[in-house]
Amino acid sequence: MTDNAMRRALARARDGKALDGAEALVLLGARGEDLEQLFTSASRVRDAAMVAAGRPGVVTYSRKVFIPLTRLCRDRCHYCTFATVPGRLPAPYLSPDEVLDIARAGAAQGCKEALFTLGDRPEDRWPAAREWLDAHGYDDTLSYVRAMSIRVLEETGLLPHLNPGVMSWSDLQRLKPVAPSMGMMLETTSRAVFEEPGGAHFGSPDKDPAVRLRVLEDAGRVGVPFTTGILVGIGEDAQDRVDSILAIRHVAREYGTVQECIVQNFRAKDDTAMRSTPDLGAEEYLATIAVTRLLLGPTVTVQAPPNLSEPAEIARLLAAGVDDWGGVSPVTPDHVNPERPWPEIERLEQWTADSGLRLAERLTAHPRFVRGGLSGDEPWFDPRVRPHVEALADPVTGLAREGAVATGLPWQEPDGGVADLGAGTGRTDLHASIDTTGRTADRRSDFDQVYGDWSEVATRIDGSATLLPSDARAALARAESDPAGLSDADYLTLFTADGADLEALTSLADHLRREVVGDDVTYVVNRNINFTNVCYVGCRFCAFAQRKTDADAYTLSLEEVGTRAAEAQALGATEVCLQGGISPDLKAGAYADIVRAVKSAAPGIHVHAFSPMEIATASAKQGVSARAWLEEVKEAGLDSIPGTAAEILDDEVRWVLTKGKLPADQWLEIVATAHELGIPSSSTMMYGHVDHPRHWVGHLRRLQELQDRTGGLTEFVPLPFVHTNAPVYLAGLARPGPTLRDNRAVHAVARLMLHGRIDHVQTSWVKLGVEGTRAMLTGGADDLGGTLMEETISRMAGSEHGSAKTVAELTEIAGGIGRPVRERTTTYGAPSRTVPA
Asked: What CA–CA distance (Å, rounded) separates 587 from 589?
């Protein structure tokens, strides 16, 4: 770092220029007069942040109680005195009465937040924790967190803020209905601190930076107002600090759910491995706060814990960019830093006023989330917890309402309905890393004309090294002898083949199809029953979903579902396919009831039902694992599940398309769980939107791995993107579906890549029409899917190829290319009777 570099960086900060990582690194070294100049810039951004939050000149805090639900933890952080061993505790967990005693004491003192802090999954390390949970009827620690949050909501009205450590996407879904906000410190992105012996996080599996970053992203996908931050002085270096702040900024910009970033200074504690490590220097700490404020800008609140600094430093913390003091308790100590008591709120108010600012109380969720959540503009709060927020909030400012007193309220909705767990964040802009300049003008139907643009976009989406195509003729030659054993580069080449290469590819796929399954074109006589079109997920390719207040919204009764199933069976159907939106009106147990209604009305019919997305959200609503939920629905009569909601099994692409939909790993795990329970599934891929052929390679690779692990996939169904009414296309952010070239390549390469694993490749007559379907059947596909009788989702998206086919019409499709047809069951067996045409 040179004086010139510091002057340039300070000048750019003073002029409001965006700082890059190198400039931020320089500014972390600001001391003395340079630091004072840095404060000037940081204070200006802080003031803009308070204006952007709707509270000009106001510094916020939350009046809270601290509930240390358990001090057991599976991690071994070398600076922590919060985590302990079972022998030092009267019980592994606080009892429900102890939790409520703390919460009631807080409510009596005017608190509005119940901060649940605990160790990460202690049952994985401590038998005493596992035994306690088993004895009290809880599957895991998070189940107990959920139950106690409900008790606190119902009996005290305090708003839970949950800090249970690392959470999966499904954990976040499970906890969102009981808490307006959650949090987890990122702490640091330094891998040395995590991986090297002696590092502060060595031996702590939950402190893997990649794992913690994924939690932040999953919280964004689920739409949870989320608090995070960095812990400074635990062995990371200045570059690590910049990287950590930029990682938080990326998540904040990407998902809009980071409500505040805590910049916490390390304080050495007795009886820890790091007791001799010096505390972070004051100027080093202040420079880190100021750089955090400048990098995060005015859209994210910056917090510094007031009890970890001396009173004389409060004004300098504010000057460095702090605009929030976090949770302050008049009742309970800071159990993580018990040697540092909270300042009295009156003193904190005076210290803030001495800097020309006003102190105001907020709720667990910050004002912009409260305003958006209560107005209905953004789905930040689950409907079951929204009334509790509303009871304490000023709807205009989003702060705590003056004079509001926390009072217990029923947690369940008054009508007994349950909440939507699949809503995204409500953001309408495209994935932040995609340059959409000129995209609207570039809507061309010829893939070759847009290939360059979308190649660039896709490279940014998946973040991986560019995959270079191989030689087409050499790839085809290798495919003849080992169709499923090619490299990714070879498959990319084949996915992008055209002209004579494409003809050779489809011919090879057709030859392979004939060897594996023969010439018969198969179909199943079935009926689609879309039992509700109410959905709050907000997929950007979907024109089917409706809000429950929309004029076209519907939910079929159990009697109506049963009637349609009986009608289908009377017409010769052997299968009903049940899928619906992610509706807040579907109560716990509703899916099992739907299956029973079908089985009762149409005994013996095969129930092919519920996508992995439906399974994930329904099990989270019910507070059980996906496995337990599938076991219940299987007992009710579920026979197989559709492998829909896969889209592209790449999370960056999925975010662009689906916002709140489940991550790729979760999709795969749910399907694998179904297979383990003896429930087979289909598999799908929706392509031709913001994806690239390299994503198709990756998607099919993941299906290969899944099939190798479980063997439960019955077929692969390529689903061309229907763009006509899709919001992502209407916004000019996606290309208008795949071309005929794309469709032929996808079906053909799928036949090659899945050879020896999945025998059947289905083509969608709904999306491709008669001629398109025939083209796929001569290039690797062997199955037509179902007669459907009704198919709403594709029709609403703009498909013009109908919503039902008779057996005679399917026979005509195959007859046009000289192929015989054969009826099959869902799992490709022979039906036991002849179906009328």
From this structure: 6
